[in-house]
Amino acid sequence: MPSEHLLNKTARSDYMSLDIGSVCQAMYIWIDGSGQTLRVKTKTLDQEPESIEDLPEWNFDGSSTGQAEGSNSDCYLKPVAMFRDPFRGDPNKLIMCEVLNYKHEAVATNHRHSCVRVMEEAKSERPWFGIEQEYTLLDVDKHPFGWPKLGYPGPQGPYYCGVGTGRIYGRDIVEAHYRACIFAGVKIAGTNAEVMPAQWEYQVGPCEGIEMGDHLWVSRFLLHRVCEDFGVIATFDPKPMPGDWNGAGCHTNYSTEEMRKAGGLSAINKAVEKLSKRHFWHIKQYDPTGGKDNARRLTGLHETASIYDFSSGVANRGASIRIPRHVGEQKCGYMEDRRPSSNCDPYVVTEALVRTTILNETGDVENFSV
Ligand code: ADP
Ligand code: MN
Ligand code: MN
Ligand code: MN
């Protein structure tokens, strides 16, 4: 059983307060060959970098992360976004990276590479995103954190936005993660307890263009790293507990400048119309398995729409796309795409929304099934 969290934290803090002079520890973060899990390694820099341009490219063994063959295993890490490191403190940094192969081409799970180009093409429309990241805390034995080891907690009802022992499972982790995000410079917008006990949500945004994916991935790193300290696991599985328990998604709130301006509701409706014509293509983009993972969650129950149907509506949490009530009333604002899975790649999701609604790409997947 992993016991990292049992190590003596007081002893650690003695070392962490040692003066390191003018050097800087830069932790490079990247998405591995699964497209879902993160890897990190650290480099000492002679001085604190001022901007991302000051960070050197680096490399790693791609054969150990499912990203290269053993015979030609070096992959490159290209720094793309820099954050403060809440674990090592200032002046140390967290560096989000893209992964390139030995020919300096994007590897299969480097979806940021095409996302940047699409966001560049669409930038005059000023696309904004806000993602609601849902997740579930598990004990080291993979059982939901705080649940009875035999049997189940009481049925859903008291847990959503709950307070009090027996209603709340793991708030320490949520509080630590929230502060870590703020310190790092991740645009975390809020947090709440979810419908299933031990399930939580935080929101990141609004972020413009490529920033959405960068900030969400770093927020996921921070969550996993905080969980190490508490001996708990955070899972992004979209339906960790089968049965009458809510699944976990990544509702993606989206707007363009036109949608945000007075009368923007008509632009929102036009975008919804475009989305309705390629539902299955979007579903393919909205989890790392082309819809298989999300099919367990998008059942038509538990505040979801069926994976096989497209629907939209004002204030409708059983629809694929919800237009928040206040947006319907004010006639401008944003829409919420409720389909993305909790384990989606936000680079893929944001790119898909822009391709369909701004670049007017069309065409759906024929005979979709999972
Ligand atoms: P819900 O009511 O679905 O639970 P939340 O309050 O959890 O909604 O999340 C709403 C998200 O929408 C936040 O992340 C926020 O940053 C984002 N958001 C707000 N305004 C906009 C906008 N104009 N465009 C895109 N995202 C937005
Ligand atoms: Mn929410
Ligand atoms: Mn939620
Ligand atoms: Mn939502």
Summarize the structure.
The chain has 370 residues and is of the alpha+beta class. 26% of the residues lie in helices and 23% in strands.
Task: Give a quick set of tags describing it.
binds adenosine-5'-diphosphate, 13 strands, Ubiquitin-like (UB roll), alpha+beta, 5-stranded mixed beta sheet, binds manganese (II) ion, 2 domains
- Count of DSSP-assigned helices: 10
The secondary-structure class comes to alpha+beta
CATH architecture field of the largest domain: 2-Layer Sandwich
**Strand-residue fraction?**
15-25%
Please provide the ordered H/E string of secondary-structure elements: HEEEEEHEHEEHEEHHHHEEHEH
Gap from first CA to last CA: 35 Å
CATH class of the largest domain: Alpha Beta
Q: Can you walk me through this structure?
A:
The structure is a single chain. The chain has 370 residues and is α+β, with helices and mostly antiparallel strands. The protein has 2 domains: 3-109, Roll (Ubiquitin-like (UB roll)), CATH 3.10.20.70; 119-357, Glutamine synthetase/guanido kinase, catalytic domain (Creatine Kinase, Chain A, domain 2). The protein is 26% helix and 23% strand. The chain has helices spanning 9-16, 112-121, 171-184, 211-230, 257-260, 265-276, 279-285, 292-295, 325-330, 346-357, and strands spanning 24-31, 38-45, 58-61, 74-84, 93-100, 128-138, 188-193, 199-208, 233-235, 250-255, 312-314, 321-323, 335-337. The strands form 2 sheets. Strands 6, 7, 8, 9, 10, 11, 12 and 13 form an 8-stranded mixed beta sheet that branches. A hairpin with a 5-residue loop joins strand 7 (188-193) and strand 8 (199-208). Residues 132, 251, 336 line the site of one manganese (II) ion.
